[in-house]
């Protein structure tokens, strides 16, 4: 797991620069959510270095623009607070108003293991931010996604901690019970199911567009800022230093899916360490994916405008 390379020619120790070496993204426009720190900032840096115009989003426009200014290349920044439907819709409108066609959308932003139950519009906050917010953004931007565009959704191996029901459709607000890691796992398995159903819809329409989900690896980033320090210490001790990826290595799989010609046409898959991997069995269930899509559409339709 920690050494060697897979069929793609890349593996655990490959970096975002490694997987994009020799790839020209000149003329491409790529949107990256959560561009201002961690994997999002590294993804922005590397893709801009390869010639793409990167539209970065963060919770505020200032944070997004500052992130863009910190890297070399062509960037722009927009506000997109994923837990705020009005902010997401405003971001969609701003991208459309720019007149740019998107070649890639990277749904990178996320929150993890909130210690206490929080909600947004009646939905548990991790599920809303990590899944519903990105669902709104991605589906809202399909009108400006290139005919061969790619949607890249950052999930996690933590999807394996999702509840046995996969998605607790009868308790989306986590009122009956709340566990930080189960809730996070539910949001991450939702990411995989979203990518699967989106890929199926692309294929059914005859589109060349693709959608894939991925596990970036275990990386020390801002994502874990909410974790109890004791829990974090135990988790890191169990993982060990060899298990921790650098940010450059952590950003490799999403950059690989966004840019590498070797994955053109690959869709509906789950990737880990730049290679196709197998997620939990229910994350591959097309009926659950369809049910989640339909339920998410209902949630979005009821949100304030």
UniProtKB/TrEMBL annotation:
Keywords: Oxidoreductase. Gene3D superfamilies: NAD(P)-binding Rossmann-like Domain. Pfam families: adh_short (PF00106). Transmembrane segments: none annotated. InterPro entries: NAD(P)-bd_dom_sf, SDR_fam. GO terms for molecular function: oxidoreductase activity. Belongs to the short-chain dehydrogenases/reductases (SDR) family. This is Oxidoreductase.
């Amino acid at each position: 797991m920690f050494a060697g390379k897979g069929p793609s020619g890349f593996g655990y120790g490959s970096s975002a620069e490694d997987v994009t070496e020799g790839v020209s993204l000149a003329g491409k426009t790529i949107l990256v959510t959560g561009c201002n720190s961690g994997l999002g900032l590294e993804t922005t840096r590397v893709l801009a270095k390869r010639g793409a115009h990167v539209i970065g989003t963060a919770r505020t426009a200032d944070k997004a623009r500052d992130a863009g200014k910190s890297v070399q290349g062509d960037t722009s920044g927009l506000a997109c607070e994923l837990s705020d439907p009005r902010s997401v819709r405003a971001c969609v409108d701003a991208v459309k108003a720019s007149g740019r066609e998107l070649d890639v959308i990277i749904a990178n932003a996320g929150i993890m293991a909130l210690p206490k139950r929080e909600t947004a519009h009646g939905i548990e906050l991790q599920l809303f931010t990590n899944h519903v917010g990105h669902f709104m953004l991605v589906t809202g931007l399909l009108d400006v996604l290139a005919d061969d565009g790619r949607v890249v959704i950052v999930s996690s191996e933590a999807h394996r901690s999702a509840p046995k029901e996969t998605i607790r459709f009868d308790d989306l607000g986590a009122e009956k019970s709340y566990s930080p890691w189960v809730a996070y796992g539910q949001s991450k398995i939702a990411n995989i199911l979203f990518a699967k159903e989106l890929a199926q819809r692309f294929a059914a329409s005859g589109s060349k567009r693709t959608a894939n989900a991925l596990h970036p690896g275990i990386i020390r980033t801002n994502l874990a800022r909410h974790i109890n320090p004791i829990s974090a210490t135990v988790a890191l001790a169990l993982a060990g230093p060899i298990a921790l990826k650098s940010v450059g290595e952590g950003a490799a799989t999403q950059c690989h899916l966004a840019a590498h010609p070797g994955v053109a046409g690959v869709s509906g898959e789950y990737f880990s360490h730049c290679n196709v991997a197998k997620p939990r069995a229910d994350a591959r269930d097309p009926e659950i994916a369809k049910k989640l899509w339909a339920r998410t559409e209902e949630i979005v339709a009821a949100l304030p405008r």
